[in-house]
Amino acid sequence: MNKITKLAVAALLGVAVLSTTASADAKKGQKIYLKKLKAKCGFTGAKFAHKHTQDEWENIKQAGKFGAEVTNICPKATLKDKYQTDVYDFSYKYAKDSGNVPSC
């Protein structure tokens, strides 16, 4: 019985660790926008996120066109695939119909 308990606790801990690292974060997306996109876009993150509503951002992401939309909004910018989920979360959280305003 002791081995089963240890195995269950280890499995639970492993799942908890993996699930937290796999999630995206709007704060991280905001930092990425500031470092990678703001200078190339020429406007704040609030202006960037306000280009679409939350539903529009969600539809763009589901269609797999988020990277293309970033390039469409900021022609001088390109966004690596590894950053897209975080920047999407930032854009979704601060979309024009969200009522949230980022501090960048």
Radius of gyration: 18 Å
Number of helices: 6
Q: What fraction of the residues are assigned to beta strands by DSSP?
A: under 5%
What is the succession of H and E elements? Answer: HHHHHH
Tell me the span between the first and last alpha carbons. Answer: 54 Å
Mass-distribution shape: elongated
The level of helicity is 55-70%
Low-confidence stretches: none
Into how many domains do the coordinates divide?
A: 1
Taking the sheet with the most strands, its summary is: none
Chain-averaged pLDDT? 86
Structural class: mainly alpha
SSE map:
Elements: H1 2-22, H2 26-41, H3 45-49, H4 54-62, H5 66-73, H6 81-93
Helix pairs in contact: 2-6, 4-6
Account of the 3D structure:
The chain is mainly α and 104 residues long. It has one domain. The protein contains six helices and no strands. The model has no long low-confidence stretch (mean pLDDT 86).
Compact overview of the structure:
This protein has helices at residues 2-22, 26-41, 45-49, 54-62, 66-73, 81-93. The protein is mainly alpha-helical and 104 residues long.
List keywords for this structure.
104 residues; mainly alpha; 6 helices; 69% helix; elongated
